Amino acid sequence: MLLVKEINNYYGKLHVLRNLSIRVGKESVGLFGPNGAGKTTLINAITGLAKPASGEIAFEGKSILPFETYQIIRQGIALVPQSRELFPLMSVRANLESGASYVPGAREKMIQTMEFVFELFPVLKERLNQLAGTLSGGEQRMLAIGRALMAAPKLLILDEPSCGLQPSLVSHLFHRLKEIKETVSILLAEQNVRQSLKAVNKGYVIENGRIVLEDDAEVLAHNEHVRKSYLGL
Fold this sequence. Notes:
alpha/beta
């Protein structure tokens, strides 16, 4: 579905991504690494926010490098950024509807998709007419994911979805991600490796802009480097 092949990204003279390659099929894939490793830069490259200096990014066999971000979203890729970026003065309902407004085919599925979102996050149905900016941090994260799902994506990208959430909400969130991956492919960039490995099929470890490990989630969970560096074992 998604193929990133040997891309190189720079910020000024700083070489951020170095001949980096990953592949996401009809599955859930984790991208793990410390702050500054290049996770967000990779996501920005995929979504057209940071064009690579070289390499290739293809979605469903077609290069998306020439496309702008809004065109990439219309191809079937949805992003939940770390900052959530909701419309705080709009209601929960309006935020959800905005996710489907400009994506071909998504508006026709709006009612059906919204019910799916409510099944995942029942609290959003209870808060439907509440302003998004008055929700708790956890509820805002749920709304951000719900809004992305309203676009009926083929690939859902999440950048540090557990950031700032209390432990009980993190467990709830990752449980829901396991349900979402049954219908949508997922690329999950996270520092919470312990929880993430329970929700993904395979993972990549990125350090200093390079992929240093790639394997099935169960294998990574028992990898000595992962256990020492990311699981504290």
